[in-house]
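Support request, please re-run this one:
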Amino acid sequence: MTLFRKPVSVKSALLLLLLPAGIALLAIASLVHGLLLERMSKEFIESRLKDEVAFLEHHIRQAEGQIDALQTGDYFEEVFHHAFAIQSPTQTVISPQSWRPLLDPLLQSDEQASIRVHDAKISNAPSDILVYRKSFVVKDTPITVIVSEDMGTLQNGQTELHAWTTIVSAMLIFLLVGIIWLGVNLSMRPVVSLQAALKRLQSGEISRINAQAPEEFRPLVEQLNQLLDSLDQRLERSREALANLSHSVKTPIAAVRQVLEDTSRPLDNILRHEMGSRLSDIDRQLEAEMRRGRFAGPQIGKSAHPVKQARDLLWMLGRLYPEKSFELSTSLTDESRWPIEEHDLNEILGNLLDNAGKWSTECVELSLKQHNCLAQIIVTDDGPGVAEDERMYLGQRGRRLDEQTPGHGLGLAIVREIVARYKGNASFSAGSKGGLKIQIEISVC
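Re-run finished. Output below.
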């Protein structure tokens, strides 16, 4: 069972999390505050009672144990503000007298230091007191002194202080929630403007997102704009391909139709050959445009394993050119990935290796590298190579430097177009063994 049945807003989620958390923290803080306050109050009262007992002991020793010589009554009550009891073998003094039933049993007790009395049922006397009791001897006369504090009055004050502390803490919690709600609203304003920009984009009012987005959303906006650019490029490329295909096949189709509709001429071998040639032109053009449609450029979320695909292609080309050797050198692992569509990478590697296989004498070398964010594909053959002044024409669609070798001059052109779609670079130079060296560089980060 999920916590929320449907998605909630950021503001609602924060409030739903903060309010219970704030209440729980407030309860814990209130409990800890009460325990600490009670402990500190008790320690403070014990310290005062101990000091007052020491004060009484000092005066009793000065009076040499004669309790009658002490100025009891108003003097001690004004100084101590506490009830006290003094007992000697011959006399007992308790102030105030209403506390006598409560303090008499404590004078007879053997306990020393602090004593706590709870729930006493004596009229005109408190029910909860804290007592400090001390016994000592003055000139062979045993003396017992007790000073006590009414804890009920103190606890009432503590309860009131604790209640006010809880109220102030609760107000601060709600104030904090309000500040967070306000801060979330202010922080979400750029997101609202981004949402409005997306609606305008959907309605066709704008073609790109230009809203001022927060720093956390800028990569998302950039990716969306890149995706829109990619879609526009693919749409434009599809329209161009359709226009090119329509223009290219219109003439051959018209010529074939004219031959078929001309009933005055028999279909001899010459006409059959001409029709076959025209149909071959149509087939070749269709194949070229279909291949262009397949390498439409980078697709979001797609990736390829370059080492695995290279090995598969080298095995296949080794069967196609059994008299030649195809070698692979790479430091990449089989699990290495490049953000390139598998078909696009197959087109690049296949066309380069097939072209090198046609022209090589004995050996074709393929090297796959990646340095930081730059992927490199290097294909070298040991064939006759290409003159430096003619390398600039390599990769031009339909242009072939040698008309005697089978092909249509589209292989390197296809490679260049794919590499351009990935914003890469293709360069041609002389190989170490005298043949042609082709180096492809594509950013993979």
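The chain has three domains: 11-155, 217-294, 306-443. The longest strand covers residues 129-138.
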